[in-house]
Amino acid sequence: MATISDVIESFLKELIRQSQGQAVEIQRNEIAKHFDCAPSQINYVLTTRFSVQHGYTIESQRGGGGYIKIMRLRPERNPSVHQILMEEIRDNVTKTQAVRLIRALQEQNLINDREARLMRAATSDVVLASPLNNRDYMRSRILKAMLSALIH
Amino acid sequence: MATISDVIESFLKELIRQSQGQAVEIQRNEIAKHFDCAPSQINYVLTTRFSVQHGYTIESQRGGGGYIKIMRLRPERNPSVHQILMEEIRDNVTKTQAVRLIRALQEQNLINDREARLMRAATSDVVLASPLNNRDYMRSRILKAMLSALIH
DNA sequence: TATTATTAAAGTCAAAGATAGTCAACCAAT
DNA sequence: ATTGGTTGACTATCTTTGACTTTAATAATA
């Protein structure tokens, strides 16, 4: 039996298909109203059926003019990167593993030097060793680290 | 979803572009009337989208004959913009602020499209909203996000 | 002329409005 | 008993509005 989540999933995929494929932007409350369900149900559908593992990424914004944008990954844009993304990166990657992976990406010419710097910066221990669990604080440190990487 | 603030932002940027580039002078009340919004809305747009870290400076005068002058900074003539950017990034940067900053960097040709994607990915809410305070876990999510950014 | 009042701007800040996110409790079907 | 789905209370974030303040130019007055 199709649950409401299944129905919403199909609906969203149909939307993406109709929009020639790669992305669609929705209002969470509208969709929820349309299917007469709780708004948070949309989040459930997104996390269980539109994750990176499923081949999608999500982008959203709160507040007035808020939205949720669902984008399909395009493996054909870079099959090697896609394969690495899907098969090689587990849920726990140590700093050493990250450094090796980034170097490998570079050696296969999948990323250039600047991009490698950005990645090392964003995943460095310095950045991630946060005493507070504060998103904005971490984000600013990540941004600073990435800009530093491009300047020095 | 384009908010009225977004529309005003585009309008002002278009004005600057048309004026061959570097500066434009407006009347706050006129713009507000034109877009049928509160005058203070203009200030909101200016502070959220035309600050120094976005590559602009503002100059204004109150009273009779008052005005607001928006000037574009020129990074190529002023290398210390890098310095300004580093100093302007506070310890708390929201996602929206990060997105706008990254776009400004791009508009000033300090980073290219791929680099902007990497930065947005590494600083996205999805990545940083970690319930666990686990470095390796976060790092893998950041890496995945960055790779996704290169293929979507 | 010097001073004061009036008018015409722009600035500030906090409250209200509009979205989306999180999380834990509850429910249903294996 | 476990897994997956549903709901709603609470939270976070961004935008819009308006009352009040500040400043500058001009007009009126001493």
Folded structure, characterized:
Two copies of one chain form a homodimer. Chain A is mostly helical and 152 residues long. Chain A has eight helices and three strands. The first copy, chain A, has helices at 4-18, 28-34, 39-49, 79-87, 95-107, 113-122, 125-128, 135-151; strands spanning 23-26, 56-61, 67-72. The first copy, chain A, has a three-stranded antiparallel sheet with strand order 1-3-2. In chain A, strand 2 and strand 3 form a beta hairpin. In chain A, helix 5 runs antiparallel to helix 6. The longest helix of chain A is centred in the C-terminal third of the chain and has 17 residues, at 135-151. The N and C termini of chain A lie far apart (58 Å). At the A-B interface, strand 2, strand 3, helix 4, helix 5 and helix 6 of A face helix 4, helix 5, helix 6, helix 7 and helix 8 of B. Chain B binds a DNA duplex (30 and 30 nucleotides) through residues 1, 3-5, 27-29, 37-44, 48, 60-68, 94-96, 125, 129, 131. Chains A, B: Belongs to the CtsR family. Chains A, B: Keywords: DNA-binding, Repressor, Transcription, Transcription regulation.
